[in-house]
Amino acid sequence: MQAIFITGGASGIGRAVAGYFAARGWRVGLADVDATGLKATAATLPADRTATYLLDVRDQDAWESALAAFAALSGGRLDVMFNNAGIGQGGAFGELDRAAIDRVIDINFRGVAYGARAAYPYLKATPGSCLLNTASASAIYGSAGLALYSATKFAVRGLTEALDGEWAADGIKVRDLMPGFVDTAILDTGISGTNRTARDAVVDAGLEFTPVETVAQAAWDAVHGEGLHAVIGKTARRLSFAARWMPGRLRKMMRRGMI
């Protein structure tokens, strides 16, 4: 039985991907700091093929323990490590305090790096395995008002590209997801210095929300396909096109706060 371990499994993209893979017969390991959300996600999945783990992705020792426990259930298999846990952070970069900066960097990038490193021996031992990371459309071009979030997602993109080359000899595929604005709780994050949320900003800009079901399908396709970066949703595709073919115009739009 194929096995996937998912961080950020208590809600949103993690929950949707868990359901998608479980429906196709996979064993699922769910990890998150949200015990209530983990229980809710697990209740939607087959009990005999689902395990949950309270995991703070910033804790390297906790990573080692969780993956060892999951491997004991899966017979040592880890077909997919889905590094999905992340948080949002909007607002003016110059107004962020040190605690906010450290938290976003530690969860959005350090947690991904720890997960990749902890999963490596299990992925290497599983033929056809894949490391799948959640990046963002903000990793296509740095987003004004989302500077720190963009920076961490660019780091995830860089790690994905580097490990795609480094781990090819071990038979491990490495992929990432670059969705636009996905309709999940992360959009309810407040924008620093305002009373608004990221969701308000997306609505005001007239941009679309990408359903989590679309991202789950893209995750499946990424694991089973050959593409390195999965650009998901209209906003992400438009941004990718502009970054490649109209970088000057995109830069001006970003300076005017039009994205």
Question: What is the strand and helix layout of this fold?
Answer:
Layout: E1 3-7, H1 12-22, E2 27-32, H2 35-42, E3 50-54, H3 60-74, E4 80-83, E5 90-91, H4 98-124, E6 130-134, H5 147-166, E7 173-179, E8 191-192, H6 198-204, H7 212-224, E9 229-232, H8 234-245, H9 247-255
Parallel strand pairs: 1-2, 1-4, 2-3, 4-6, 5-8, 6-7, 7-9
Helix pairs in contact: 1-7, 3-4, 4-5
Strand content: 15-25%
Number of helices: 9
Mean pLDDT: 89
Structural class, from secondary structure content?
Answer: alpha/beta
The CATH topology annotation reads as Rossmann fold
Question: Helix and strand succession?
Answer: EHEHEHEEHEHEEHHEHH
Distance between the termini: 44 Å
How many whole angstroms does the radius of gyration measure? 18 Å
Largest sheet: 7 strands, parallel
Organism: Sphingomonas lycopersici
GO molecular function: oxidoreductase activity
InterPro entries: NAD(P)-bd_dom_sf, SDR_fam
Protein name: SDR family oxidoreductase
Please give a quick description of this structure.
By secondary structure, the protein is α/β, with parallel strands linked by helices. The protein contains nine helices and nine strands.
Salient structural properties:
single chain, 259 residues, alpha/beta, Rossmann fold, 7-stranded parallel sheet, two-stranded parallel sheet, 9 helices
